[in-house]
Amino acid sequence: MGFIWLNCLSSNQVIMQKLFTSLVLFLFFHSLSFAQGDTDYTLQLKSGDQKLPPNISDFNPDKETLESNSQGGKLYLLAQFFQIPTEDQKQKLTLDLGVKFLEYIPKNAFIITIPTQNSISGLMGNGIRYLNFIPEKIKIHEELLFLTNVPDYARRGNNVVINVSVFSNADAKSIISLLNQKGVKNATQRPNTKTFTAEVVFENIKNIAGIPAVQWIEPGGRKEEINNYAGVATHRDNVLNNILGRNLRGQGICGGVGDGGFVRPHLDFGTRLININPAT
Fold first, then answer.
1. CB-based contacts of 23, cutoff 8 Å, min separation 6
2. How far is Cα of residue 208 from the mean position of the Cα atoms in its chain?
3. How far apart (Å, rounded) are the C-alpha atoms in residues 76 and 37?
4. In the beta sheet, which residues pair with residue 48?
5. Contact between 80 and 52 (Cβ < 8 Å)
6. Which DSSP letter does residue 41 get?
7. Which SS3 state, helix, strand or coil, does residue 49 take?
8. What percent of the chain has pLDDT over 90?
């Protein structure tokens, strides 16, 4: 006569076993969701989000395409990495291939330039998943995609006033020349900026976006207005100089402003600037 010994679990042990199993499953699916999140390469652009499929093994433009997308001896490219490169990795690309990192775009993407004489194939194997010339449509404000969307303040008869921003390493004189070649009128550079204002036939906006060094095009022509008083109310600073509030009026007080750009043309400062030190 044989005996079978059964390991009988108490009710508490059964409950604990179920809880443990549930915890393991929860952690598994939670970690899976994180892993999936890490592979989300959606670009967050001014013109809207965009998903880019990996193409690094297929990107091989011919000589004619390279020449048509070259400006000032440089190719302007959109490069998306599997992971944001470290400073050492970026430095290596700069030393080996002359790559310049101009602008970061979430997620894991940069606008880069590479000298025209250097081979794009050298970029492969450096953690890049997507590489291409910058699409024209992501350079254009949504109000300039269709003629019916153009705001009234930007209309000048049959023309549209636009503000054209270019990348920091672009040459201003060459930009003016290229804009004139695209049929713009009254192209002028804003002082101390890389932004140009011009009038153009609506149909030519896409051609201007095709200039490699162009970063962004938006409607122009809006009248600039001092917004000191509106800004005070917006930021709720009006409580400072209110008798019922702080009663702080700033009389006899000098303030300092640190800015990455040039502050003199700022409309809100008016004639109140008393000292400028560009070295600080």
1. none
2. 19
3. 29
4. 45
5. yes
6. -
7. strand
8. 39
The DSSP string of 132-190 is EEPPGGGGB-GGGSSGGGS-GGGEETTEEEEEEEE-TTS-HHHHHHHHHHTT-EEEEEP
Handedness of CA 240, 242, 247, 248 (dihedral sign): positive
Whether the CB-CB separation of 72 and 170 falls below 8 Å is answered with: yes
Tokens of 102: 């101009």
Q: How far apart are CA 80 and CA 127, in angstroms?
A: 9
Among all chains, which residue has been given the structure tokens 């640190």? 258
- In the predicted structure, residue 213 carries a pLDDT above the cut 80: yes
Percentage of the chain beyond pLDDT 70 is: 70
Report how far residue 253's alpha carbon sits from residue 123's, in angstroms, rounded to the nearest whole number: 54
Confidence of residue 78 (pLDDT cuts 50, 70, 90): very high
Mean pLDDT within 186-194: 86
Report the run of H or E that residue 200 belongs to, with start and end: strand 195-201
State the average pLDDT over residues 112-118.
Answer: 92
The Cα 140–Cα 215 span in angstroms is: 9
pLDDT at 18: 55
Residue-wise pLDDT tens digits, 218-258: 999 887 766 666 666 666 666 666 666 666 777 777 777 77
| Dist. CA 213–CA 74, nearest whole Å | 9
- Could you give the CA distance from residue 88 to residue 79 in angstroms, rounded to a whole number? 17
Residues with Cβ within 8 Å of 115's Cβ and at least 6 positions away in sequence, in order, are 73, 74, 75, 97, 98
Judge whether 239 and 245 are in contact, CB under 8 Å: yes
Partner residues linked to 260 by β-bridges: none
In the numeric block, the tokens 């970029």 are attached to 123
